[in-house]
Amino acid sequence: MSSDADPTPGLQLTDEQWRQRLTPEEYAVLRQAGTERPFVGEYTDTTTVGEYHCRACDTLLFTSSEKFESHCGWPSFFDPADSDAVILRSDDTLGMRRVEVLCANCHSHLGHVFEGEGYPTPTDQRYCINSISLRLVPKA
């Protein structure tokens, strides 16, 4: 898991190219660090077995085996599928101290990670990820 010293993204597009590739709603979250409203995302309550890929670049980020019910309003995972798939970066916006989760390949905003909340998971972490940042590939 990379952190703070962001390496150069593997996929680099211009702002206009991102706008052509993504819907306005996807662009607002993935490229402008927006947040979708709680309890409305496509994958909030999904229990489908499969892989969750970055909607912007298709990098594998999480799997259904790391997904858990947190009842927070967004899909929650206790760990990425591969620790190098995400970058963690300090986020002090909105008067809060949080840790932002970015796709390591394209540096798109995915959500935030929280620790020490008492969820019964192996890592005691909750990767709170916007559904609109993900694309579920169901297992065949």
UniProtKB/TrEMBL annotation:
Reported cofactor(s): Zn(2+)
Keywords carried by this UniProt record: Metal-binding, Oxidoreductase, Zinc
A GO BP entry: response to oxidative stress
EC number(s) on file: 1.8.4.12
One Pfam entry name: SelR
PROSITE patterns: MSRB
Gene Ontology cellular component terms for the protein in this record: cytoplasm
InterPro entries, A to Z: Met_Sox_Rdtase_MsrB, Met_Sox_Rdtase_MsrB_dom, Mss4-like_sf
Ranges of residues in domain MsrB: 15-139
Single annotated GO MF: peptide-methionine (R)-S-oxide reductase activity
Source superkingdom: Bacteria
Reaction catalysis annotation: L-methionyl-[protein] + [thioredoxin]-disulfide + H2O = L-methionyl-(R)-S-oxide-[protein] + [thioredoxin]-dithiol
Alphabetical list of NCBIfam families matching this protein: peptide-methionine (R)-S-oxide reductase MsrB (TIGR00357)
PANTHER family found in the cross-reference section: METHIONINE SULFOXIDE REDUCTASE, METHIONINE-R-SULFOXIDE REDUCTASE B1
Protein name, entry field: peptide-methionine (R)-S-oxide reductase
